[in-house]
Amino acid sequence: MKYILLVSHGTMAQGVHSVLDMLAGEGRKDILSTSLKNGMGADELAENVRKCVSVVKEEDELLVFADMIGGSPLTTTAKVLAEQGLLNRTTMIGGMNLPLVVSAVVSKDSVDRAQIVDMLVPEAREALHEFTVTVSEEEDEI
């Protein structure tokens, strides 16, 4: 199985997880999440990551999405994965956003883990656009 682990500062990971429940099906066992909450230490976060990845078996793979590269959630997660011997079966991406993770969820089982970054990152970049609304003058005169 390919698992997806979401990690973040605050409650971003749980929020994205909640949206994935709506879009991809509630109660999926292949989506895991945890976060570094205000006042929480790295040791507590590391223990939460250990609990999340305890379901990952020797034949499984892991896709980790973090809110930002270099932040404590991702670096702590990387340390835990190294301790657990999971790094060689893990792909990590920083700069998590909803389109990125939705694409990962729907395509993870049909795309080789070695190629998934090449597919997902350009898709996530393409999803980022300014949203503009044009109001016609006729609507203003009501």
Name the CATH architecture: 3-Layer(aba) Sandwich
Name the beta content range: 15-25%
* Spans of at least 5 consecutive residues with low confidence: none
Number of strands: 4
**What about the largest sheet?**
4 strands, parallel
Tally of alpha and pi helices: 6
- Helical coverage, percent range: 40-55%
Q: If you consult CATH, what is the topology?
A: Rossmann fold
Q: Helix-strand pattern, N to C?
A: EHEHEHEHHH
Give a structural overview.
With 142 residues, this protein is α/β, with parallel strands linked by helices. It has a single domain, classed as Rossmann fold (3-Layer(aba) Sandwich). Helix content is 46%, strand content 18%. The chain has 6 helices and 4 strands, in the order βαβαβαβααα. The protein has a 4-stranded parallel sheet with strand order 2-1-3-4, sandwiched between helices. Helix 1 links the parallel strand 1 (2-9) and strand 2. Helix 1 packs across helix 4 (98-107), helix 2 (42-53) packs across helix 3 (72-83) and helix 4 (98-107) packs antiparallel against helix 5 (113-126). The mean pLDDT is 92.
